[in-house]
Amino acid sequence: MQAKVGRLRQRLLGIAADHLPPAVQKLQLLAPAAASLPALAVLALLFLATARRPVPGAGPASPFLDGAYRSGAAASPSPAAAAARVPRGCDIFAPGEWVPDGDAPYYTNLTCPLIQEHQNCMKYGRPDRGFLRWRWRPAGCDLPRFDAAAFLDAVRGSSLAFVGDSLARNHMQSLMCLLAKVAYPTDVSETTNPEFRTMRYESHNFTVAIFWTPFLVRGYQPDPRRHMWDIHLDEPDAAWAAGIAAFDRVVLSAANWFARPAVFYEAGRVVGCHYCQLPGVPDLPMRHSLRAAWRSALRVLTAPGGGFTGTVVVRTLSPTSHFEGGAWDRGGDCRRTRPLAASEARMAGLDLDFHTAQVEEFERASAEAAAAGGRARLLLMDTTPAMLLRPDGHPSRYGHWAHENVTLYNDCVHWCLPGPIDAWNEMLLQMLLPDHPA
Question: Is 36 a catalytic residue?
Fold first, then answer.
């Protein structure tokens, strides 16, 4: 009986939360067990009586895209929302701190249906809520809160692709949850593969897509039983490279998979490996493969005449170092409940190696593109220093029910939704505003 009541209560909460104003939605976070069933029933019935109105300007669902997502004519333009901007001279990626935020979070697992299960920490019983109550403040200035209407106006009539591993998908899902305050997208994917999704915001003629590519270049497992990868460092992965010219903006990211055992190829020949223990094959540092793969990927996007003429946003790695008490496969976990102060963490080890390689390859690509007269614009989105301070924001064991028989490890790589990753989209909005300095 108690279980049935709990399920009914959760359903009523969901009905109410889908229709209540944002300020009232937060009551579910502040006191999730306080509301009685009769009170919740009244709320649900009250708001069901006034059905959710369609988003202004929204057209019919598009069953497909024609394969060209660039700069289409905006549908039913409305007055542009005035976005709050950082002052000129403010570096939103400068060293800073996470400060308390009583207005957070922007959404909940009940108001956003787009959260992947393994990042749905609230659904799966994370007991604390303090990790939600922080915002990133760069040194010397404030980062404005995310404005969904302003973001959609900034990207009206354009397209955005997230290219990378599952953290790129984590990033995109955060964005869609933030935009859900204004509009929901239509899934117009041309494949059933969940790693490649294309979502369409008809009301703003805006398309957003995810291309899963953990190495950016061609990588595969000849024998999955050996857990060894073959990575062709000079061959960009056709899964994203073949169609990327159709997009206006690309957020490029990848790092964590380069820690896996692998054999490296260039020009079809073995040039080294990481932990392959093959006779005569030199063991190369992990930063070698990451650096080479990033160089190949960026050249696809910046080569003159290569087809892509939009904006490339290079997002630096999400920290690999938040496991405590053991490695990811040796019982390591991340159970902290609040951010670290800047004095409590510094970039080191693999994080420092990968971050240095990414920044240097960004600088190299920028210089090469400028010298060759390339039309692509490159921006660096250096999220690593801020995220290094958030070991409290990962799912840990709260990506599935405790009783489920799953083979997942404690997740200290991805980010809870809602959670600290939402700050990436506060940063992205500032970068996409028309007068953002190059």
Answer: no
